[in-house]
Amino acid sequence: MENIVMFTIGASIFILYLLGYIMMINKAHKSQQTDMKNDPELILHYKKTDLNRVLNVLVHLAESDGHISEEEHKMIIRIGKENGLNVDEVEKLIKDTKPVEAMNDLPKEAKLELIIDVIRLMKIDNKVHQQETKFCESIAIKLGYRAEVIKDLSIYISNSLDVNLNKSLLKEIVSKFYKSNSRQ
Questions:
Q1: What whole-number distance in Å separates Cα of residue 171 and Cα of residue 163?
Q2: Which of 180, 110, 122 shows the shortest CA–CA distance to 150?
Q3: What CATH number matches the domain at 36-181, 1.10.10, 1.10.3680, 1.20.1070, 3.30.1120?
């Protein structure tokens, strides 16, 4: 009798574990299908004065492998639209890129957003080219981060089932690499 009770308890715990696992997988699958423009965690807010520089950096990154993929183009358009530009304004920025300027004067929050955006853009087409990685590392340095932030953040984003990712967790990872907060 005691064995039957223990077996029943064990089987119940196992079934609850399986149900939890199935629910977690289902949630991850649904989050991968989330419409990016309706997810408030993905809506980025840059100051108008910083937006052109940010979009310019993203265009340079997208072009660093020789062409802008459709996914990269859509992401750049989305970021521009979410920050008050119309499609024509963003298209003009894409066609008329400027040299990448110094960015150390960006507010810290904008730097965090941009470093996360460059990683997302680099990985959005599921192809990471060496030129893209080098460009991202140079941007990280210009923003005041150590280049290693690109590798660590890329690993986290690659290993995550949730394409929308927890932005506060991403910011926590990035903050560890900010030069003023760490010893080299």
A1: 15
A2: 122
A3: 1.10.3680
Q: Give exposure, 149-169, as e/b (b: 16+ Cβ within 10 Å).
A: bbeebbeebeeeeebebebee
User: Which residues have a Cβ under 8 Å from the Cβ of 73 and sit 6 or more positions away?
Assistant: 62, 94
Torsion angle of alpha carbons 92, 95, 101, 104, nearest 10°?
Answer: 60
List all residues 6 or more positions away from 147 whose beta carbon is below 8 Å from its beta carbon. 137, 138, 140, 141
Per-domain residue ranges for the chain?
Answer: 1-33, 36-181
Q: Tokens standing for 180? A: 């003023």
pTM summary value: 0.63
Residue (of 144, 138, 65) closest to 106 by Cα position: 144
Rg (CA), the chain: 21
Closest among 53, 155, 181, 31 to 114, alpha carbons compared: 53
Per residue in 37-68, pLDDT tens?
444 444 445 676 688 888 999 999 999 888 89
Tens digit of each residue's pLDDT (9 = 90 or more) over 86-139: 999 999 999 998 888 878 788 888 888 888 888 888 888 777 778 888 888 888
